[in-house]
Write a structure and sequence with these properties.
The protein is mainly alpha-helical and 493 residues long. It is 75% helix and 0% strand. Helix 10 packs antiparallel against helix 11, helix 16 runs antiparallel to helix 17 and helix 17 runs parallel beside helix 19. It comes from Treponema vincentii F0403.
Length: 493
């Protein structure tokens, strides 16, 4: 019986299967027919989807292009108004001086509106960088209520005030002295630094009195603050602290930093009776005292102080030699020229060599200029030395390199092996306003190298040579230049 039932079911299945197969075949045929009627003969089936993809891609690229074309200033404004803290700080940290001036209203508004201490700190740093005093009132307000503020914000405000050197108002003076006496360990050094920059005779007397009464549990911290106070008193060099400074300078048990600031501060008062003390200090074994003696000698122009400065060029401690260079440069001491040239040629410390190079450009002697020119031309000399010569000559004495400037710098523009030197030369040229680098600017703007062209725009921004304007206009009209095009457009506005 079971066998009979199985045979009957098999027969039924065999009969039904062709029906399903036929239906599938028919559906496929209809589908194919439908497709054939919607496409021209010989056209691939995938053409329509690909056209759609291309259209979508084209639209996306257009949108991206429009987004890139959005003015950089407008993008910055939107970030400052609507952006996250990180986006705002990105703008604040990378803005250049021209953009800072353009966006200053936005920055002012942001400082007033923001509740973010980090953003306020960033803005203090920005205004400090460009020495803009517009945030002075806000900084004073923070100091007046410093206990309610974040520590880092208070320190940013103090650093800002030290840099921009506003007028010392009664409110600011009171806030600073209150912080110094009430929270010495936390803010003492910073408040003293501000007073040292903008204080007067009364503040100097206050600091001298505070020095004598100062006591902090941490001996190291106390010493640091005392050194900071003495550095401030050196800057103020107020006559009413003369006796105090003299006592500190002559006390051989006093800290060396304290004594060095004291003698330098005394010298800056300009009383020649301190000159014998300067000579005495230069004979001391402690290099910091010898350095202070040379620093003090800069306040005088006598045979004794000039001789002291010349001796400083031969001191074994490099900071004494540096101070001698600063003094000779400040006083334009012509008799020091041979000493300075020797330092530029042979000093074992780069910092001294480069300082000597700058002093040579300031003194402008025939022998010094000849060495500067010869060294600048010499490809075997270190690139850093040659770049330093270019930089200092542009600042102080462009005529020293007038005959060599174009020859040396233009040679790097076409030589790929000198690309690094080209960039360094270009960056220094772009920093200094001058009238002697027009041809170099044009060569940089015509380069196919993106960074070289960008540095050329920096040069144009600084000096705007008239005959280079057409090249900047060409870049501004070239859609293939990307970011360089937008920079060029802004420079032409």
């Amino acid at each position: 019986m079971k066998k009979l039932v199985f045979m009957m079911l098999t027969a039924v299945l065999l009969a039904v299967a062709p029906v399903y197969i036929a239906a599938d075949t028919a559906d496929t045929a209809v589908s194919k027919a439908d497709n054939d009627t919607t496409l021209p003969q010989g056209t691939p089936q995938q053409e329509k989807p690909l056209q759609g993809q291309e259209a979508q891609k084209s639209g996306t690229e257009k949108m991206e292009g429009e987004k890139q074309e959005l003015d950089e200033i407008e993008k910055a404004r939107q970030a400052l108004q609507y952006g996250l803290e990180s986006e705002i700080l990105e703008v604040v940290n990378k803005v250049d001086k021209q953009d800072f001036e353009t966006l200053q209203g936005d920055f002012n508004r942001l400082f007033t509106e923001t509740k973010s201490p980090a953003v306020r700190e960033g803005l203090f740093g920005l205004y400090q960088k460009y020495e803009d005093a517009q945030l002075t009132e806000s900084a004073v307000a923070i100091l007046e209520d410093y206990e309610a503020q974040q520590r880092t914000l208070v320190k940013a405000a103090l650093s800002y005030l030290t840099a921009v050197k506003p007028e010392l108002t009664p409110a600011l003076n009171e806030a600073l002295q209150n912080m110094l006496t009430q929270d010495t360990a936390e803010y003492g050094a910073e408040t003293v630094s501000v007073l040292g920059e903008i204080g007067g005779g009364e503040e100097a007397a206050f600091l001298a009195s505070y020095f004598d009464s100062l006591t902090i549990d941490d001996a190291k911290q106390e010493l640091i603050l005392k050194q900071t106070i003495m550095a401030a008193l050196e800057k103020l060099h107020s006559e009413n602290t003369r006796d105090f400074l003299l006592e500190r300078a002559e006390d051989e048990n006093e800290n060396i930093y304290v004594r060095s600031s004291a003698i330098a501060g005394l010298a800056q008062m300009g009383n020649p009776d301190v000159i014998p003390l300067l000579v005495k200090f230069f004979e001391q074994p402690e290099p910091l005292l010898r350095e202070a003696a040379i620093r003090g000698a800069a306040a005088f122009d006598t045979a004794e102080t000039r001789n002291l400065t010349l001796q400083g060029f031969k001191d074994s401690y490099y900071k004494v030699r540096l101070e001698a260079l600063k003094t000779a440069q400040k006083t334009k001491m012509q008799e020091a020229a041979p000493y300075i040239l020797y330092r530029a040629k042979y000093d074992p410390t780069d910092a001294v060599r480069f300082a000597a190079v700058e002093a040579l450009t300031v003194l402008n002697t025939d022998e010094g200029n000849a060495w500067l020119s010869e060294t600048f031309r010499d490809s075997k000399k270190s690139e850093k030395l040659r770049v330093t010569i270019l930089s200092t000559a542009l600042k102080h004495n462009p005529a020293a390199l007038a005959a060599d400037l174009d020859t040396v710098v233009l040679a790097t523009v076409t030589d790929s092996k000198q690309k690094k030197l080209r960039y360094e030369f270009g960056k220094e040229i772009a920093k200094v306003e001058n009238t002697v680098t027009g041809e170099i600017c044009k060569a940089f703007l015509q380069s196919d190298d993106v960074l070289t062209k960008s540095i050329g725009l920096d040069m144009f921004k600084t000096n705007a040579p008239a005959d280079a304007r057409a090249l900047v206009e060409t870049i501004a009209q070239d859609d293939k230049q990307g970011a360089l095009q937008r920079r060029a457009q802004r420079l032409l506005e």
